[in-house]
């Protein structure tokens, strides 16, 4: 018998424009197969769009670079034939006996003809659906198979409105769309796993099957612990599709009968006992399971659930496995704030996250990029991602990494006026042209994604609701199972006495709410009025004021997102490097006038004439691109830290959550992003990382009270706050410690009002350092550094501060495992310490639990790259770098970067190694202060990495490694 298995066909594809291929699909897959990338055939990008293939082969310019997108002909002008393409590949498939093979497509935009070895199949329309073809009788079991797919674009591709928009197997019995659901009892100490799966018998005779469910957990060393193994016998008629549920349906029917006849309960006691005995024999029950928690609330524990089917006389027929997390998500409208409140495993979650468009505008989707994207969100301490309705349902790998890193997912269906319904003229206010096709795609998406513990809710559309018939159907098909509805009754409910009335895994979903639109039912004003936003620069203190946003949960609030100068140079020609003109207006405000390329790439200005003075000019007029982008990073950090701190300051009293517009860009955009399309972070990334800490100390910029935020489930006790303020000369102007503090769980608590800058010894610009630490061991729980100016002032005194030479000492250690590198660095400001006995230098950082994606234990310290240093006669594999300086002061706005070292480096060449995960970046150190910074990244083959440090007053760049 041949081996059972699955193979991805995501490499080795060729593509050609259909009008340039004079052969039929039958000829391509029989007698005239293309032999390689010879005209008109070219190497194809799969997965990816037709445009991605054209870009790869330099047939169109890169639409992400400069204004090149303008030179690419739009389908509305070219016609559909121009973008109708053939895709061709070959594969081998070894079959024996009565094995079956399916050809599966994750999605095709928009319809296709499939040719395999001369046989034709037509795939139905719809880009948000899966397709499966039984090709058992078509494949050559011992030879090469020729596959050609003719892909047609949408029938009605439409035209962009003038004002634009933002949108963007081998088996006789097959396992189909299993559904996993967990239900909890006894205060989450007992959980039941419910499993329903489809079984399709593709043979012409009855299939006598053994259906197995195996649940395992991974332990140290790569070994797995078997938690449950259950086997059931199932008979599947020839050519039939059946649904089978664990535990046995008869048990649930008996329970239902008992409840319906509760007045006879005494006479049914014996029967009840027998029913529960039978239930316990067949139920997949767990006692005190490891729970799945969102990021910042606990570990993301996952079990591996494997479903297998064996057919009598054949053997193993199909196998399916999925990582599954035990957790319960509840949601209701909070009576205090009016915002939507989420609970996970009974614990309220204060939502801090952002909006996601899609991974890549050309759909060059990869597991590696998904992992980086989602880990970035985890690194920012976010706990929710909203998959915006103008994007798409991402590939399963996206949701897998949300499971791994603890990001709750708000999944929106494809209804948005940005893509359909607004514009001049209005294109289609009633939504999609084919409502049945939309619902078919929606149901298929639900089945694809519903087993992911990270998935928190379904939403009908962005800033509008689906047409009435679609909305009604979604409400009905995504209704909650009774157990997952929030009960307001006190005491024991029927769910407490009887595990369930009917099996939840037989619902289409049943475990998550459906909200009809992004501004309804606890989001924005809850009524669908345009009450999200704003989307521009703000004064940092505005976010803390009571009148900034009056609703409990804001699904979209946006601001600036300028990347670093190296990204501008890498994505635009020199004419795009011109910084904005600063136009002084009669009302004393300044208007930024960006160059045409920045405007095309959706640049958001750092000023809002009439409301907000230019925040970059606070630091002085920028002189060139590097100066402008560095000052923009200062503003990015302040802006997004203040945004999240302002929301968190009113946690539960005014707000239940906020989502920032937006986390990232699917192309080289210049607005609302925390990392650019090349995967380099802005300073706003680290402003968010600081503000969204689970335990956080912060300054309320409106009241000047120091506050402590505790979003965890545990009370903080025996903690202290250390406050120090510094001037530009390195003097400690103010120092105070507040000890023996207790911070309740799930609270933001104002601790004290700052005396400075109300005191007499004011300085126009000063630095504020806040530390929250454990008293017993001086372990730092939170550290927060501000640069501030007196009311009515600005930061212009920081311009001459660039010349202050503050010494640094950086001790680094390198670990390498293949291409993976980790660098641990202790960075110390070695300028003279102030003469005081404060606790500033006794503190040590408490590292968060490892997320497991970088196994430090397996890394090898490489001495060949590390300068040997002798201390006390012992060799220490450390490298020490010193940045010379003689002055005392704050080492301000330090940031690391990693580059590929090249002996033949060309001027202007982008040598950055991306992505890099930093434990912190864009940070500052007070005199004598030390910080631990970890970097992890992968190095391309044959490349030697170099790590450099720059800062506000370290601008030449010093090589650390």
Automatic annotation (TrEMBL):
Q: Which UniProt keywords apply?
A: Glycosidase, Hydrolase
The segment(s) forming the Glycoside hydrolase family 2 catalytic domain are 340-472
Domain annotation Exo-beta-D-glucosaminidase Ig-fold: ranges: 858-954
Matching entries from Gene3D superfamilies are given as:
Galactose-binding domain-like, Glycosidases, Immunoglobulins
Q: Which InterPro entries has this protein been placed in?
A: Beta-gal/glucu_dom_sf (IPR036156), Beta-mannosidase-like_N2 (IPR054593), EBDG/EBM (IPR043534), Galactose-bd-like_sf (IPR008979), GH (IPR017853), Glyco_hydro_2_AS (IPR023232), Glyco_hydro_2_cat (IPR006103), Ig-like_fold (IPR013783)
Q: Which domain of life is it from?
A: Eukaryota
All copies of domain Beta-mannosidase-like galactose-binding, residue ranges: 38-154
Q: What is this protein called?
A: Beta-mannosidase
Q: Which organism is it from?
A: Rhododendron griersonianum
């Amino acid at each position: 018998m041949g081996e059972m298995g699955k193979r991805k066909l995501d490499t080795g594809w060729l593509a050609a424009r259909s009008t340039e291929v004079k052969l039929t699909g039958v000829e391509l897959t029989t007698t005239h197969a293309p032999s390689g990338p010879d005209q008109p055939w070219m190497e194809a990008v799969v997965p990816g769009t037709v445009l991605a293939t054209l870009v790869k082969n330099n047939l169109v310019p890169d639409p992400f670079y400069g204004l090149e997108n303008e030179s690419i002909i739009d389908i509305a002008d070219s016609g559909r034939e121009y973008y109708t393409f053939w895709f061709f590949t070959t594969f081998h498939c070894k079959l024996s006996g009565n094995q079956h093979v399916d050809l599966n497509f994750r999605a095709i935009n928009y319809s296709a003809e499939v040719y395999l070895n001369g046989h034709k199949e037509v795939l139905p329309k719809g880009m948000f659906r899966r397709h499966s073809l039984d090709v058992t009788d078509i494949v050559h079991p011992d030879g090469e198979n020729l596959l050609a797919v003719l892909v047609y674009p949408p029938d009605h591709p439409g035209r962009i409105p003038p004002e634009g928009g933002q949108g963007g197997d081998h088996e006789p019995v097959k396992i189909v769309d299993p559904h996993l659901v967990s239900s909890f009892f006894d205060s989450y100490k007992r959980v039941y796993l419910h499993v329903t799966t489809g079984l399709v018998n593709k043979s012409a005779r009855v299939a006598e099957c053994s259906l197995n469910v195996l649940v395992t957990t991974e332990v140290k060393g790569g070994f797995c612990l078997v938690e449950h193994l259950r086997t059931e016998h199932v008979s599947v008629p020839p050519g039939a599709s059946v649904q089978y549920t664990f535990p046995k349906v008869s048990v649930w029917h008996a329970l239902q009968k008992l409840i319906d006849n509760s007045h006879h309960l005494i006479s049914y006691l014996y029967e009840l006992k027998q029913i529960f005995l039978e239930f316990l024999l067949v139920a997949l029950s767990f006692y005190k399971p490891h729970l799945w928690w969102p990021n910042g609330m606990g570990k993301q524990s996952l079990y591996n659930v494997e479903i297998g089917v064996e057919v009598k006389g054949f053997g193993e027929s199909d196998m399916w496995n999925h990582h599954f997390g035990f957790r319960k998500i509840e949601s209701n409208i909070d009576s205090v704030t009016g915002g939507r409140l989420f609970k996970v495993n009974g614990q309220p979650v204060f939502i801090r996250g952002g909006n996601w468009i899609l991974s890549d505008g050309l759909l060059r989707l990869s597991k590696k990029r998904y992992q980086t994207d989602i880990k970035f969100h985890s690194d920012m301490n976010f706990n929710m991602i909203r998959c915006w309705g103008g994007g798409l349902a991402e590939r399963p790998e996206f949701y897998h990494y949300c499971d791994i890193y603890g990001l709750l997912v708000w999944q929106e269906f494809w209804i948005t006026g940005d893509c359909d319904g607004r514009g001049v003229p209005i294109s289609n206010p009633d939504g999609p042209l084919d409502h049945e096709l939309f619902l078919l795609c929606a149901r298929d998406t639900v089945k694809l994604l519903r087993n992911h513990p990270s998935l928190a809710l379904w939403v009908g559309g962005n800033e509008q609701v689906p047409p009435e018939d679609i909305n009604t159907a979604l409400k009905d098909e995504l209704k909650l199972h009774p157990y997952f509805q929030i009960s307001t009754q006190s005491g024991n409910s029927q769910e407490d006495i009887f595990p369930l009335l009917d099996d939840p895994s037989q619902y289409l979903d049943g475990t998550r709410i459906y909200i009809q639109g992004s501004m309804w039912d606890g989001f924005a004003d809850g009524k669908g009025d345009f009450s999200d936003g704003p989307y521009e620069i703000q004064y940092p203190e505005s976010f803390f004021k009571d009148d900034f946003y009056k609703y409990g949960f804001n699904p979209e609030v946006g601001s600036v997102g300028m990347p670093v100068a190296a990204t501008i140079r890498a994505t635009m020609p020199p004419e795009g490097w011109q910084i904005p003109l600063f136009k002084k207006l009669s009302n004393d405000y300044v208007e930024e006038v960006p160059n045409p390329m920045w405007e095309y790439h959706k640049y958001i200005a750092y000023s809002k004439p009439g409301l907000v003075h230019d925040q970059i000019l606070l630091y002085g007029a920028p002189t060139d691109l590097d100066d402008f982008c560095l000052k923009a990073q200062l503003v990015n950090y302040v802006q997004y830290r203040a945004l999240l701190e302002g929301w968190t300051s009113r946690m539960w009293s005014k707000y239940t959550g906020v989502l920032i517009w937006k986390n990232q860009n699917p192309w080289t955009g210049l607005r609302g992003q925390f990392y650019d399309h090349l995967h380099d972070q802005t300073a706003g990334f680290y402003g968010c990382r600081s503000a969204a800490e689970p335990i956080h100390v912060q300054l309320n910029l409106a009241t000047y009270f120091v506050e402590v935020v505790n979003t965890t489930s545990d009370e903080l006790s025996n903690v202290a706050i250390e406050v120090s303020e510094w001037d530009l000369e390195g003097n400690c102007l103010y120092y105070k410690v507040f000890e023996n503090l207790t911070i309740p769980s799930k609270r933001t608590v104002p601790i004290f009002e700052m005396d400075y800058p109300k005191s007499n010894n004011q300085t126009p610009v000063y630095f504020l350092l806040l530390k929250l630490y454990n008293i017993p061991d001086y372990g730092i729980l939170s550290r927060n550094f501000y640069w501030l100016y007196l009311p009515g002032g600005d930061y212009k005194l920081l311009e001459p501060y660039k010349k202050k030479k503050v010494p640094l000492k950086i001790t680094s250690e390198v670990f390498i495992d293949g291409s993976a590198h980790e660098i641990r660095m202790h960075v110390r400001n070695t300028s003279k310490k102030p003469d005081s006995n404060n606790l500033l230098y006794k503190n040590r950082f408490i590292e968060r639990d490892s997320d497991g994606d970088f196994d430090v234990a397996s890394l090898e310290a490489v001495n060949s790259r590390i300068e040997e240093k002798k201390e006390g006669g012992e060799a220490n594999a450390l490298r020490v770098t010193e940045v010379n300086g003689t002055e005392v002061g704050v080492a301000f706005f330090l940031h690391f970067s990693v580059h590929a070292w090249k002996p033949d480096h060309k001027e202007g060449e982008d040598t950055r190694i991306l992505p890099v995960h930093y434990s912190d970046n864009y940070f500052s150190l007070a005199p004598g202060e030390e910080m631990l910074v970890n970097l992890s990244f992968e190095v391309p083959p044959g490349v030697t990495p170099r790590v450099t440090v720059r800062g506000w007053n370290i601008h030449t760049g010093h090589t650390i490694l």
